[in-house]
Write a structure and sequence with these properties.
Elements: H1 3-15, E1 24-31, H2 38-41, H3 52-60, E2 65-67, H4 75-81, H5 97-106, H6 117-121, H7 150-158, E3 168-174, E4 187-192, H8 194-208, H9 221-233, E5 237-239, H10 243-247, E6 256-261, H11 262-275
Antiparallel strand pairs: 1-3, 1-4, 2-3, 4-6, 5-6
Helix pairs in contact: 1-11, 8-11
């Protein structure tokens, strides 16, 4: 049994709700100095790309995936994870999940040129209407873009934490049941209902007395807010899911995300066990196991 699995099981037991399950993904980030185990390399998808939000959702269902420069389906996530330099002026590839949507709506067919990481970082993609780049729209001619102009987009991106300069070779997003006990996660991501989030915060505070300060935005939520921010800041973060997580990965409307550095997840689990007599979660309205 992996450490993450053991911690999760202890947490669920302490919540005292029969049938309780919380979709959970483990994340391991490999830098250029790290050796990626063969069991992890074997989880590289063949013939398709996946976004980070798709990958975390699938990990909650039991699937494992190694995201690399070649297999990641979101240029923005590749920037956040440090798989690519944010000012690279050539496209990440001919086909990713996001750029395929752009290509389809543009009507340009083989003449479509995918945006580069630089196009994202300069705000051109996120402010496609103001930048007069309708080929980068996601929703046709009525698409306003994600920000009113490139300057606003750049200001927003300044708050989106990223591993830059890029030095990452792979991001392994995997389920609690991945059975290689030598792979210890850097970050645990949980997809929670508000009632579960309440109890997790109470558990973390019980022994630490610390508040959780949420930093959230409307884009790059899974990769930047829920994975990279906890990884780099060594702090728990909470955020609502973003456009891609909702529309592409189909994260449910009643859930949001919380990302834990492994050490803080351990602290939360211990707090869940130590405080269960003072926070009877099973009596909270809506605490019954989700169908």
């Amino acid at each position: 049994m992996t450490k993450a699995r053991e911690l999760y099981d202890r947490m669920i037991t302490a919540m005292s709700v029969p049938g309780m399950q919380i979709p959970t993904a483990c994340v391991k980030i490999y830098s250029q100095e790290d050796e990626i185990p063969q069991a992890v390399q074997d989880c590289t998808p063949e013939g398709l790309t996946l976004t980070s939000c798709q990958s975390t959702r699938q990990a909650g269902l039991g699937d494992d995936v190694l995201l690399t420069r070649e297999s990641i389906g979101c240029v923005a996530a590749a920037i956040s994870f440090g798989l690519v330099d944010k000012y690279q002026d050539t496209p990440l590839g001919d086909s990713t999940v996001y750029t395929d949507i752009m290509k389809a709506q543009s009507g340009k067919g083989e003449e479509f040129s995918p945006p580069s990481p630089k196009d994202f970082s300069e705000g051109t993609v996120y402010a496609c209407t103001a930048a007069q780049r309708p080929d980068f729209a996601l929703f046709g001619e009525d698409d306003t873009g994600r920000f009113k102009n490139p300057e606003t987009a750049r200001n927003a991106m300044d708050e989106m934490i990223a591993i830059q300069p890029a030095n990452t070779t792979g991001v392994f997003i995997y389920s609690l049941d991945f059975d290689d006990t030598d792979v210890e996660p850097d970050v645990i991501v949980m997809s929670v209902r508000p009632v579960e989030l309440t109890r997790l915060i109470q558990a973390y505070q019980f022994n630490t007395g610390k508040r959780i300060n949420a930093s959230m935005g409307g884009l790059r939520v899974v990769n930047s807010d829920l994975i990279v921010r906890p990884y780099m800041k060594k702090e728990i973060n909470v955020s609502t899911y973003c456009l891609g997580a909702r529309l592409i990965a189909q994260h449910e409307g009643g859930r949001m995300g919380i990302g834990f550095p492994l050490k803080e997840f351990e602290e939360t689990v211990k707090g869940m066990e130590d405080s269960k007599g003072g926070y009877p979660f099973q009596l909270y309205p809506g605490a019954e196991a989700a169908e």
